[in-house]
Design brief:
The complex is a heterodimer of chains A (222) and B (268). Chain A has two domains: 60 residues, Arc Repressor Mutant, subunit A, CATH 1.10.10; 155 residues, Tetracycline Repressor, domain 2 (Orthogonal Bundle), CATH 1.10.357. Helices cover 77% and strands 0% of the residues of chain A. Chain A contains eleven helices and no strands. In chain A, helix 1 packs antiparallel against helix 2 and helix 8 crosses helix 9. The termini of chain A are far apart. Chain B has 268 residues and is mainly alpha-helical. Chain B has 13 helices and no strands. The longest helix of chain B is centred in the first third of the chain and has 48 residues. Helices cover 79% and strands 0% of the residues of chain B. Chain B folds into two domains: 101 residues, no CATH class; 145 residues, Tetracycline Repressor, domain 2, CATH 1.10.357. Classes of the chains: A mainly alpha (222), B mainly alpha (268).
């Protein structure tokens, strides 16, 4: 479907308006009417671009989640140097931790979604799956295991957990550690660098363990 | 008649204003002096013991209300939840909720506290461990926390409430953060010992949050994890153990690296 400019603008306006309305009301209580009123369009536009309320909601979730998924695609370019690729990827992803790095309705929508997952979550996960696999391949390369190996998955989520923590628990961190300011570029870089060094050391240890186990096994079968 | 009198005496213990003495001559007349003696005794002991019974009941009611409130707050959020609905679901009058918790914010604060503080015990254990071996203490702490986070952390509503609270903090968060301060310092002290830095050093703090982030991820992003990693089953004790041990190995290696850097002249 080729969209002309005004059509694309309407789509974008609808996503922005819907993001706001869904964040306040939640998926179930939000109405297409209110969203259209806010976006100054008619209900037909929603049907045309998104099919129905769930379709629109799915796009809103994707729109806010995919924003931080893009760096993974750049990361895959440099698989020959996985360490630098990881550094670049974490750095870029962490940039989203600043205020305005994502729409300000994003955390509230995710809160609603985690409280009561809708069918949209399945569709969104499908959409981010390729990036997840790319990231898993990168981590797998670093520890010398397959992308779907349990060890690789645990490393992936050790890294993801560290990054997402600063976004998901931002309000608590601000209270426990008042000096931290994620709007400060230098601090963001320091934390991202920390996560990378910390994780690379952790993965190096796991890779070394595997090498030792492999040597022992080879030694034992001779 | 005798049975009726006996029943009245038995229940009369809870309602001392009942005109039980009206029936006394009747029962006395039927030759049951022992019964009366027993009833009086029961009445007297109930006065003595009512205090502890009452506080036990209050504790039970409190836990029950917190449990139900947790569900309601998780479902509809702080703003939309009403004390009336919570009281109705608990099967008590709304004034009883007011009496115990003050207002909605008071009740919500207790819900938030109970879900966060339930996870605080392991760090207290770890901090009282052997100071000569902070690595082991940290390892034990992470494993215990990971276990507790699943079982004792009221998993059904903990994650949604925290997600809502982080997305839109209420004044309750300040109170809870204040109470967590002591344990946060304990944890920083422990991690500081591992990397040879001050508890207030930025490196110590970043290491603390690297550990916290890894553990919380499995609770806060559970819905997402289940979809991205279908083989993951946190109800499987063996898998939980494997993940907790992974976090320990991963984190200790990360910290060791920082400790070595620290010896080499510190971070720019």
């Amino acid at each position: 479907m080729v969209m002309d400019q005004s059509s694309a603008a309407t789509r974008q306006k609808l996503i922005e308006a819907a993001g706001h309305v869904f964040s306040v009301r939640g998926f179930h209580d939000a109405t297409v009417r209110e969203i259209c009123l806010r976006a100054a369009t008619n209900v037909a536009a929603v049907n045309y671009h998104f099919g129905d309320k769930l379709g629109l909601y799915t796009e809103v979730l994707k729109y806010s989640l995919m924003a931080h998924q893009e760096p993974a695609q750049n990361g895959s370019v440099a698989l020959s140097d996985p360490q630098s690729a990881l550094r670049a990827l974490v750095g870029e992803w962490f940039e989203r931790a600043r205020e305005g790095g994502r729409p300000n309705w994003f955390p509230r929508i995710m809160a609603h979604e985690m409280a009561q997952p809708t069918p949209a979550l399945d569709r969104v996960v499908e959409a981010i799956q390729p990036n997840y696999l790319r990231f898993s391949s990168l981590v797998g390369k670093l520890i010398g295991r397959a992308p779907t190996d349990a060890q690789t998955r645990m490393c992936v989520h050790s890294i993801v957990g560290q990054i997402v923590h600063y976004m998901q628990s931002r309000a608590m961190i601000a209270r426990l550690w008042p000096e931290v300011d994620l709007n400060d570029a230098q601090q963001r870089r320091a934390i991202a660098d920390h996560i990378v060094s910390f994780s690379l050391a952790g993965m190096e240890k796991l890779a070394a363990k595997k090498r030792c186990a492999g040597d022992a096994r080879r030694g034992g079968t001779q | 008649m005798l049975l009726g009198g006996a029943a009245l005496f038995a229940f009369g213990a809870d309602y001392p204003s009942w005109p039980v003495w009206l029936f006394a001559p009747l029962v006395w007349w039927s030759g049951s002096g022992l019964l009366i003696a027993w009833a009086i005794l029961r009445f007297l002991t109930s006065i003595v013991s009512s205090d502890t019974d009452d506080s036990k009941f209050k504790h039970w009611l409190r836990e029950k209300v917190i449990g139900i409130a947790g569900k309601v707050f998780a479902e509809v959020g702080f703003d939309e939840a009403t004390l009336r609905e919570i009281a109705e679901r608990a099967g008590i009058h709304v004034t009883a909720v007011n009496e115990h918790f003050g207002d909605k914010l008071g009740l919500y604060t207790e819900v938030l506290k109970s879900s966060i503080m339930a996870q605080q015990q392991p760090v207290q254990n770890a901090a009282s461990g052997n100071p000569a071996d902070p690595q082991s203490a940290l390892g034990v702490f992470i494993c215990e926390w990971f276990e507790r986070a699943r079982e004792g952390g009221r998993p059904d509503w903990f994650a949604p409430i925290m997600a809502r609270e982080m997305a839109r903090p209420t004044p309750a968060l300040d109170r809870v953060a204040e109470e967590m301060g002591a344990n946060y310092l304990r944890f920083r002290t422990l991690v500081g010992q591992v990397i040879g830095q001050d508890p207030n050093d930025q490196r110590t703090r970043m290491c603390v949050h690297s550990v916290v982030g890894q553990v919380l991820h499995y609770m806060q992003s559970r819905a997402m994890l289940a979809r991205l990693w279908p083989e993951l089953d946190l109800n499987n004790a063996q898998q939980r153990r494997a993940i907790a041990e992974h976090i320990v190995t991963f984190s200790l290696a990360g910290m060791e690296n920082i400790a070595v850097e620290g010896l080499g002249g510190g971070q720019p």
